[in-house]
Known about the structure:
Blueprint: E1 2-7, H1 11-20, E2 26-32, E3 46-48, H2 53-63, E4 66-71, H3 78-91, E5 94-98, E6 111-114, H4 117-124, E7 130-134, E8 150-155, E9 168-172, H5 179-188, E10 193-197, H6 206-214, E11 217-221, E12 231-232, H7 235-252
Parallel strand pairs: 1-2, 1-4, 2-3, 4-5, 5-12, 6-11, 7-8, 7-10, 8-9, 10-11
Amino acid sequence: MHRILILGGTLEARRLAERLRGRDDAAITLSLAGRTAAPAAQPVPVRIGGFGGAEGLAAYLRAERIAALIDATHPYAATISQNAARAAATAGVRLLALRRPAWQPTVGDRWTEVADVPAAVRALGSEPRRVFLALGRKELAPFTSAPQHHYLVRSVDPVDPPLGVPHASYLVARGPFAEATERELLLAHRIEALVSKNSGGEATYGKIAAARALGIEILMLRRPQLPAVPNVATVEEAAAWLDHVLASVAARGV
């Protein structure tokens, strides 16, 4: 039985775990960072918490005799992906990154790409606007420097403490979000600008399509640079990669 570690926290990670759980030649463990108070149910055993950087992850890979590591973390989890690349190289473990393709602007989109959250704050301008922040709790602090805007904040867990601005509303919800529902939300809150990560995938694309339909500007955070490691875009490709890896291990009699 070969031990496989998936670094997760995404819909793709959960789907990959579901796809692999029935294998009789592999024991799958899904690792979650533990940043969400009530993580979604998972189809395989779960490990929660950090590893202690690249060195700690390398030690874990060795101690647990991990045969393959699959990095299926969020496209903006650059530090985790960098640690995974370093740890796999140190421990001599095969590594694959499962990376969602980025969304691409299409006809009718009003995108402004920005380098980071402070750049998004500046791009909102000085005049008060009604802004939907779809970024996650840890990215909100820079917006306190622009208290003139009215913010709608959506997150998986409550924002505590609240954003230090006079006008902010909060929604606690977990995707996926349908386009029709997102359009109703944008209209109900009279949203004029949306700040979003280019997360890719289908689960949260509804807000992008809804903003396009309503002619709302999107300030899109540029994706971070990720390690140059073998990577695929789909769960099916990741499962096929693991087939190949385990077949080669079996052929060597390991």
